[in-house]
Design brief:
The protein is α/β, with parallel strands linked by helices. The protein has helices at residues 42-60, 64-80, 82-93, 97-114, 117-120, 156-167, 182-193, 208-216, 229-241, 264-276, 294-308, 329-345, 380-383, 399-408, 422-431, 467-473; strands at residues 6-7, 9-11, 14-16, 22-27, 32-38, 124-130, 133-141, 144-148, 171-175, 201-203, 220-226, 245-249, 255-258, 288-292, 348-351, 370-373, 390-396, 411-412, 414-418, 436-439, 455-456, 459-460, 475-483. The chain folds into 2 domains: 6-250 and 458-480, 3-Layer(aba) Sandwich (Aldehyde Dehydrogenase, Chain A, domain 1); 255-439, 3-Layer(aba) Sandwich (Aldehyde Dehydrogenase, Chain A, domain 2), CATH 3.40.309.10. Strands 15-16-17-14-13-19-20 form a 7-stranded mixed sheet, sandwiched between helices. Strands 10-9-8-11-12-22 form a 6-stranded mixed sheet, with helices on both faces. The longest helix is centred in the N-terminal third of the chain and has 19 residues, at 42-60. The N and C termini lie far apart (76 Å). The relative contact order is 0.13. Bound molecules: nicotinamide-adenine-dinucleotide. Nicotinamide-adenine-dinucleotide (NAD) is lined by residues 148-153, 157, 175, 177-178, 207-208, 211, 226-228, 231, 249-252, 283, 385, 387, 413, 454, 458. Residues 21-480 form the Aldehyde dehydrogenase domain.
Length: 501
Amino acid sequence: MSSLPTVGHLIGGKLITQGERAQDVFNPATGRAEKRVLLAPKATVEDAIANAQAAFPAWRNTPPLKRARVMGNLKVLLEKHAEELCAMITAEHGKVLSDALGELQRGIENVEYASYAPELLKGEHSKNVGPAIDSWSEFQALGVTAGITPFNFPAMVPLWMWPMAVACGNTFILKPSERDPSSTLRIAELALEAGLPPGVLNVVNGDKEAVDTLLTDPRVKAVSFVGSTPIAEYIYATGCAHGKRVQALGGAKNHAVVMPDADVANAVSALMGAAYGSCGERCMAIPLVVAVGDATADAVIAGLKAEISKMKVGPGTAPGMDMGPLVTRPHFEKVKGYVDQGVKEGATLVVDGRGLTVAGHEDGYYLGPCLFDNVKPGMVIYQEEIFGPVLGVVRVKTLQEAMDMIDAHEYGNGTCIFTRDGEAARYFTDNILVGMVGVNVPLPVPVAYHSFGGWKRSLFGDLHAYGPDAVRFYTKRKTITQRWPSAGVREGAVFSFPSSR
Ligand code: NAD
């Protein structure tokens, strides 16, 4: 038996810390295992589903304003516990503390938006659709809903999902990433403290076995997923085949176009944060710069080289760090392998971050920032999502060439353009085949009261995550048409189709 603390499940309001299967959770800054996370077998997930099912009738009938108040309480608790939560995120993910705080803040904004559920659920009403006939649409909760989340935002991405789901009257089962599960579970405990009744939100830690149970159990009505594209596609296909509503957000390869008229200094500082922030482990990160014209490319590369030389890489808890380690040893090896591959493919490695060691943290998963020039669309480092601190510059001659390249890529999550030309920016935003677009904004992550989602193979399903789309995703429309005939008035049978002619 391991003596490490266990991260368990939260089912029916109770923490469960005993289980047969478990795996280590590592601190990427040190490379040491610091916790064990339980991996739920089918029976444990079924227990969570039963608890969520039992909690549904009373929660569905709880006035929306009371449900929303829980979200208000939770916002206060999340702010109060911010330091504790960010420490958990950094200890398991590796990102620097200020970045963890940014993630938490974005998550809190989703809780805030969910607290407007009474307003968002008001529905639509039409009086006199026929003589003395009224009609309205209401948005009813689905029942038991589920979410499966990735490692890169252990606090924020779960908060994209369950606060709106439960504010709409559903109950929820969350399956967090097994790589950094602590903050996710702690937030669920805080939700209980905020007044969420037991069983309304359940957390099961686990792997494929847990996910497959959620995807196939008929009691689960809808599944939200965020993670890599191959798994997103599997989740979508399997969930839909089992009659569920599914939204599955996948991977990305976001291009930033830099036009010849752009303010290069400004573009370079924006690109630094977008490429290397959180070690490139963001689905909205910028791993590719498309420079229009060789002069633009040369200026961007010179600027990036100068900025990279000033970057501080080390443990996310140390003050003043710009970048922490990658999340796990296998992921570190994978990202390093992509850098090797880029060199073999003939791209020019301008800055080589391989071989970096951080004194006192020799076993941590540190890779320094890497910069490639002359990346070409046929290369693996162009096509595949690397999810690390590796930025590639592609040289093109025109904006149209840049746009054709972006449109041809399998992913369409985010993109941005740096320019001073309004006409070019408008043409770009209007025509590019990507779901989230920035103009002189490198990470155009929509705020909580818009919705988040990519196009092409970055999202399977129709509705985007959080914001107004989430209200539609977690509810089903029911349209009621009603009349109260006056006593004594009888029309008799009508055989023609009713219309307002
Ligand atoms: P991942 O796909 O490996 O894992 C995501 C979730 O799926 C985890 O909970 C994991 O336990 C589960 N899972 C993994 N393999 C599974 C399998 N075979 N069957 C069933 N479930 C399985 O993703 P990750 O590495 O945790 O996260 C990084 C990925 O997520 C990147 O591709 C990134 O672009 C993507 N991401 C996308 C968005 C977005 O909004 N589009 C946001 C964040 C992250």
